[in-house]
Design brief:
Elements (H helix, E strand, L loop, with lengths): L1 H14 L29 E3 L34 E2 L31 H7 L5 E4 L2 E4 L7 E4 L7 E7 L10 H15 L3 E2 L6 E2 L1 E7 L8 H13 L3 E3 L4 H10 L6 E3 L6 H4 L4
């Protein structure tokens, strides 16, 4: 098992390299402040006012004059739409406020300078800091992250596996890739640059289970290419999915390493 891991580690080390300019983020700022009905959590805000959107920290006002709180924003993101719900009581003698669909407020003004700051703000969840914004490394389509994501300048790469919704980490593809990752990081990471400085690897694992989640590979690749901006992907994908991923992101010059078999579709390709 260790021999297999060592072989994969050598293969990964041979192809993964690159640099990432890590910049900075915003801690979320809730929308309107307390009124008759309270805001919710990110992605599904609380009840909005009868009309009007909450601006950055603004307050939508209901028909009775009471402020209705917008949903709080997720880390580095924007708040979701206000949900529907029953209002209670009259506001200052005015009309009884009703449920609305006002937008919540946007994220706050706190900036980050390091990945570690984003991780702390995100309750130890994996984030990266870029251009004063914290980007989540995990998504519903890419639910696993391994490696030292608090490091100031790691090398990010993507991976795919046929993941189970209940236990996505219980997967032989994930296990083998993770063993290689841990072997490389235990040795100090990948040496890059003329001075021999080493950087650790961070692996973001995305789901390839198209049978249960149609479109999941496209969404996972968009996250890897556009948000994380990986330069390499361990693409455990069926040949036509691999070719599609390559074609969709050919301009970004991402290196795709396929550990599974090829077909003539790939070997005879114009690329």
């Amino acid at each position: 098992m260790r021999a297999r891991s060592g072989s994969l580690a050598s293969l990964v080390a041979a192809v993964l390299s690159g640099c990432l300019v890590i910049a900075p983020l915003d801690e979320p700022d809730p929308g309107g402040t307390g009124g008759t009905s309270a805001g919710g959590s990110s992605g599904s805000g609380g009840t909005g006012g009868t009309s009007g959107d909450a601006g950055a920290g603004g307050e939508p006002v209901s028909a009775g004059g009471a402020s209705a709180a917008g949903g709080s924003a997720g880390l580095g993101g924007t708040a979701g739409k206000g949900g529907s719900g029953a209002a209670s009581g009259a506001a200052g003698g005015g009309e009884e406020p009703t449920a609305g669909n006002g937008d919540g407020g946007t994220s706050g003004d706190h900036e980050c300078d390091t990945n570690e700051e984003c991780v702390i703000l995100g309750d130890d969840e994996p984030y990266l800091c870029r251009a004063h914004q914290c980007e989540p490394l995990k998504t519903n389509d890419c639910p696993l992250v391994y490696g030292d994501y608090s490091h100031p300048d790691p090398i990010y790469f993507g991976s795919f596996g046929l993941l189970n919704d209940a236990n996505p980490d219980v997967n032989v593809t994930v296990w083998s890739s993770r063993m290689a990752l841990e072997d490389i990081n235990a040795a100090g990471g990948l040496p890059v640059g003329d001075d021999g400085e080493s950087r650790p690897l961070v692996m973001v694992v995305c789901n390839s289970n198209e049978d249960e989640h149609p479109g999941v590979i496209k969404k996972g690749m968009r996250h890897l290419a556009d948000d994380v901006r990986v330069q390499s992907v361990l693409a455990t994908l069926r040949p036509h999915d691999l070719q599609q991923a390559f074609e969709d992101h050919i301009a970004k010059k991402i290196f795709f390493l396929s550990p599974i078999s090829l077909t003539s579709t790939m070997t005879d390709s114009q690329y």
